[in-house]
Structures are given as C-alpha cells and as structure tokens.
Amino acid sequence: PSTNLALCVTTDDFEAPAKEVLSEKSWVYVSSSASSGLSLKANLDDWSRINFRPRIMRSVSSINTNRAILGQTSQLPFFVSAMGTLGNAHPGAEPLLARGSTRKGLHMVVSTATSKPLEEIMDAHQEEQNILKNQSPSKLAFQLYVPVDRSKALSLIRRVKAAGYQSLWITVDTSVLGKRTADRYLQAQEALDQGAKERETAAENEFSPAFGGRPVPGYLDPGLSWEDLAWIKQEWSGPIVLKGIQTVEDVKIAVEYGVQGVLLSNHGGRQIHSAPSALMTLLEIRTYYPEALDKLEVFLDGGLRDGADVLKALCLGATAVGVGRPYFYAMAAYGMEGIEKCTDVLAEEVEITMKMLGVSSLDQLRPEMVNTTRLLND
Ligand code: FNR
C-alpha cells in the first residue's frame, strides 16, 4: 500500500490501505453490510453515544490489562472475532493471524469458513507458542456454523476437539445469509459482464477454499433450534458460547440451556437489517435481566474501533469484546506487522484510557463510569 505502516495510528487507518491492495471482490465482501447499512452504522455510532465519567487522582502508575475469558487469561480484554475468507486478505491466512494473536497474548476465534484446515491453524499457533517458550496465554476457539448434514457436524466437532480448540462458539444468527447489498451489485455486474453462468456447483457446496471460504447456500441449517444444543453438548464437553444473540429474551433461554457464554453481535451489521447494536442489547440485559451477567460470560462485538470502546463495554458488564474488520484490513495491507500494530494500537488505547479513567485493573470498571443517557433517551 502507498501508506507507510507508521502512519497507521488508529484502527481506522488500516481500512484505506487494505482497500488499495484487496481485489474488488474481497474488499466488497469484508466491508459490506446488510441492506442500506443501518445495522453497521448502529455498531459504529452507538459507541460514540455513550461517554465516560472519568475519576481522578486514583494512583494509576502501574496497571494490569489481563482478563480471563472462559477461564483462560488473555493479556488484553479483547479477542479476534471469527472471520471467514481470511485467505483473501493474505496468503498466510488464518495461520498468520493465529501467530500474530499468540505473539500478543490474545485469543482468536477461528471461523468454520477458513481457507486452511483447522488443524494447520492450530499447528501454527502451537509453533508460535514453542517459539515463545509457551509464555503466551493465547488460545484458539472455534466458531461453528452448524451444517445441515448432522454427520458432517459431528465429524467437524470431533476434529475441533481433537485439534485442541478451547471453546466452541456456535453462530446462531445465520439461518440464512444476510442480504449484502454491495456484494449483490458486484455479482449482478459480473453476471452482466460475463453472461450469466452457474457458479455454485454441488461440489462447491461447502466452505471450501475453492469457494473463498464463504458460507454458501445449502450449508447453513435454517432448522437449527435450541434442542440441537443437546447433541452438540454430547460431542463437545468444553465451554460453549452462542454467537449472535440480540435480545434479552434469548439470553434468558441461553442461561436455561446452561451455556457458558453469549456473544452479543449483529455479525458486523452483515445479517439482519435494522439490528440492534450489541451495546443496545447489553443495555437491555442490564435493564431487564442483570443477573445474566453473573450467570454466564457476556461478550460482544461489532464496530469496536478504539480501546476506549472496549472499556465502555467492560464498564457495562461485558467480559471481553471481539474485533473483526480491523484485523482483516491490517493483515491484508501489512501482513504480520499489521496484525501486531493493530493490537498495539488497541492495547495502547486501553492502557491510556484506563489511566485517565482512574482504574489500575479491569475489575475496577463500573457501570457508573459511563453515561448512557444520550443513547437511551433518543
Ligand atoms: C465475519 N463474521 C463472521 N462471523 C461468524 O460467526 N463466522 C464467520 O465466518 C464470519 N465471517 C466474517 C467475515 C468477514 C469478512 C467479516 C467482516 C465478518 C462476523 C464477525 O465474527 C464479527 O461478528 C464482526 O466482524 C464484528 O464486527 P466488526 O468488528 O467487523 O465491526
């Protein structure tokens, strides 16, 4: 890219360089959102509609940013969100991002829609751990899109378990793929340019590298229901997080079903149009079912672009948050250096904001350290 990495000072700064180097199709896939973009806009805007109530003179000369996620320490209170098509960002794809996460002591959620086998990603993670003499607390989690074919689902879960993934994050907001407007325009244009040609053959009816690791119609199971958790739990004894919960009602049911965590998310604004931001859902939980915050771990993702946003979520009771596109962009534009820089940018923002907020460890964050009236009142 024409921009020097040194000039990437905020996570937003990775976007333009990524656009420069990505193919049009890859750029559109990663940056697009559902319909007119309201869900994505809410994600980005809502963080700016709450503000801090910083406290002063609280002795913050040394601070600690560690946070346990499902019992596993992370050096920072955020993780890398599950993203498919990382092979389009960089030839090193998921293994490279896994190595970068390991170097920074972060956990990473590996998507079902990878461009490399899940075992190879775990190997890269382990290799990096060896290089670091196992000093990094980083762990890999696996995001599961439940396939229609139950035997495929079972064998996939078995592979995930055998490979040593720590937790299973089941995506529950993708009964169908959202209507991604920018992708539709591009597809329509391509069809017009090339003459309509049938692309999705039966052989490609998978999250295959050949398909760019994209979810394809026919793989995702619209029949997925709460009852499916029973057979999944028979195969998977580790922690389960439901990814894509958007209401307090569903958090209640999740508690009843005994999962260890929920990830409040509207899938980066890519699924349902006019979705609540995860922040809105978190506030809903605080109002109608605050006990949830003691019964399971509540994570969220979507539109987090500054370490300050991360801390706002934690003040309101989130255990940790996920960051998606900034890592995709940073990796596309600058490879490993970009991945590390993206983490450093967020880490520095977390640290300086903690100090200016008057907290020296994350467990000192409190709901009264943010003011949510502006968001709630209009
Ligand atoms: C995603 N997301 C996603 N989620 C999931 O459960 N499985 C997946 O394979 C993917 N793939 C994916 C690809 C790309 C290119 C993007 C941008 C997103 C959603 C992702 O996990 C997360 O919810 C959002 O990306 C978070 O929002 P931000 O940080 O991108 O704004």
TrEMBL record:
Kindly list the positions annotated as binding glyoxylate. 29, 145, 180, 267, 270
| Record-annotated active site | 267 (proton acceptor)
The segment(s) forming the FMN hydroxy acid dehydrogenase domain are 3-375
**In its keyword annotation, does this UniProt entry include Ion transport?**
no
What keywords were assigned to this record? Flavoprotein, FMN, Oxidoreductase
GO molecular-function terms, A-Z? FMN binding; oxidoreductase activity
Q: Where does FMN bind?
A: 82-84, 111, 143, 171, 243, 265, 301-305, 324-325
PANTHER family from the xrefs? Answer: CYTOCHROME B2, MITOCHONDRIAL-RELATED (PTHR10578:SF104), S -2-HYDROXY-ACID OXIDASE-RELATED (PTHR10578)
Protein family according to the UniProt entry: Belongs to the FMN-dependent alpha-hydroxy acid dehydrogenase family.
User: Protein name, please?
Assistant: FMN hydroxy acid dehydrogenase domain-containing protein
Which species is this UniProt entry from? Penicillium cosmopolitanum
Query: What high-level taxonomic lineage is stated for the organism?
Result: Eukaryota, Fungi, Dikarya, Ascomycota, Pezizomycotina
